[in-house]
Amino acid sequence: MTAIAERRATSSVALTILRAREVGLVLLIALVVIVTTVHNPHFIDSNSIEQLLSGAALIALLGVGETLVVVTRNVDLSVGSVLGLSAYVVGHQFKYDHIPVWSGFAIGILVGVAAGVLNGFIVTFMRVPSLVVTLGMLYIIRGIDGVVVNGERIDPEYIPTSFTAVGYKTLFGIPWLAIIVAVVVAIAGYAMRSFRASRDLYAIGSNPAAAALAGIHIQRRVFTAFVLSGALAGLGGALFLALHTQIDNSGGIGYELSVIAAVVVGGVAIFGGSGTVVGAALGALLLNTINQALVASRISAFWNQAIAGALLLAAIAFDRWLSLRVTKTLQSAEGAHRDI
Amino acid sequence: MTSELATRPSGDSAVLSGRADGRQPLWRSLARWETGLVVVLVGVLIWASVKSPTFTDPSTLFYIGVNTGYTAIMALPMTFVVMTGEIDLSVASMLGLAGSTVGYLWHHGWNIWAAFAVALAVGVVGGALNGVLVARFGLPSIAVTIGTLTMFRGLAEVLLGSLTIPSLGDQQFPEWLTNIGVNSIPGSQLSWSMLLFVVLAVIFGVVLHVTPLGRAMVAIGLQPEAAKFAGIRVNRMKFWLFVLSGLISAFAGILVTLQQASVSYNVGTGLELNVVAIVLFGGVSIFGGRGTILGVVLSVAIVGSLQMALVQLNVSADKQNIVTGVLLLISVIVPNGAAALRRARDYLRRRARPRPL
Fold this sequence. Notes:
The complex is a heterodimer of chains A (340) and B (357). Chain A has one domain (2-339): ABC transporter involved in vitamin B12 uptake, BtuC. Chain A is built from 13 helices and 2 strands. Chain A has helices at 2-39, 46-70, 79-97, 101-125, 130-149, 161-168, 176-194, 196-206, 208-213, 218-244, 255-265, 277-296, 304-339; strands at 170-171, 174-175. In chain B, helix 6 (91-107) runs antiparallel to helix 7 (112-136). Chain B is mainly α. Chain B is 72% helix and 0% strand. The chains are: A mainly alpha (340), B mainly alpha (357). The interface between A and B is large, with 47 and 51 residues.
């Protein structure tokens, strides 16, 4: 009895520490905001807060999908290309087919689902490492995008204003874009905690062999994760178009690395098995806040990338330190209880 | 998935075919990835010569060298790193940082050789940073090198900003050095960067396939724990491989600066994925422990000539991207497709056999 209670106690301590990850991120974001505001009061103008949230929203959205894939010990490098292709296809439909506004989102998601199905099929059915597959798909989809776009640019006048409203209208000072993403994060966050299928994703990531022995349909679950990641990247494309109101063949170039950076900073283990979508979204927000803060602090913009990189390294190192400490705590607790 | 691949070497087939000496039957040794690459290379060369009349010009070889040489050079240390089960995504940013370092120092009136030396030192330090984080702190290399990818490129931006060196009022880089982008090696059509690649490839190939050092890399990639117990200093090896990768990438940065006779901070952006693609298409397993330098060299030849042919045929960069991606997918689907077929065959055989009572 006491042993079980004690074990419960230690695991809840560990859980609190792990959960503190999100708390830590929020504190860090607050710290950055406060320090920057002291230097430059304009930093918390409603205008720049809008920018802050809109800027982080797309990366956060893609980060949700990426989290689903990464917890299964896979990776999806194709998200940036999928976003670019989806954004163009939606824009193209608006320009030439005058589709209704809602179907813009549907088409974006469909494009993403198609890419996700392809990724998922190759990874799970052919049993090929996802890094290689999605790297290949990054090139292929970007290439297809370029061929389809063929040097054209869809200009703002072709995009319905009720569609672009998502990009610039706000509710209580919060951009609709950010609200949509927050809803997605909330749903995904709840699902990842409570649904059996999503717990399976964690099981697969922590120990694929054990997950298979436990009767989890690994291939099916991983496939679903890729499809969802694609779907969110596709939705991201539609939102990208709504935000930027124009699109050529360069949408989303290099997003994959920003997304992975956000996910890693958000505490998702790159080798699978742990991490939350809320963490990933906060990671995206933190990175974007830092970027904006550097701009607001009038530090030369040339420093942005260097500092972002250094912070990313710090986040990874901190993570490692944290997990080592948790392990140590758990081990010493277990040792103590063997003595009894 | 990995273990299945790892436990299916051709050794058991030698036993099955009753060869006591353990040697493989001839068809087995021919059915290697490299053989497939040779076939593909020949196919590409024939196709390119038929399609593009200019492809058979001697100068084609020179331009392939100029365009692919510096990327190819970075593929060699990348092969080592991937062999040990790690990855270095910061190579292209290091190329940019080293090039920018040369540009910055030249802009400030330094001697060109001193600038080169500093750039190479930057490569060593950057590689050591990767190495420490991966080997000493045990952090995942894919995450670490995405971080340093951002950081190195950022530092390059800090150094040069929006300048292109030589900028207004600067001296040009010494002409006899920048000529490596214009003139081939006297008496041949080989570019200097391609010659360097060939020389380095021979050295890397010897190290990987003939020396204990190379065997150690293979061992680390196949089974790090076992390698450790066999007395291989796994972490030290990984550290030095990242240093090597930084150094060679910096060298490639100097090379590309000279070839183009100018440098800006964003030179080679995104090239890391090309390098990884070349290495993987060359048959190096992303899980480590498998691959040959010969395969990587063939991969460079295929990618280089294919790109050149596509450029000569005025195929758009987008379609070239598609070709690169398809090559990459083929490189993993073909060997795994065979494994999938084998799985299906084994399954059918089991079904066909009468069940024991």
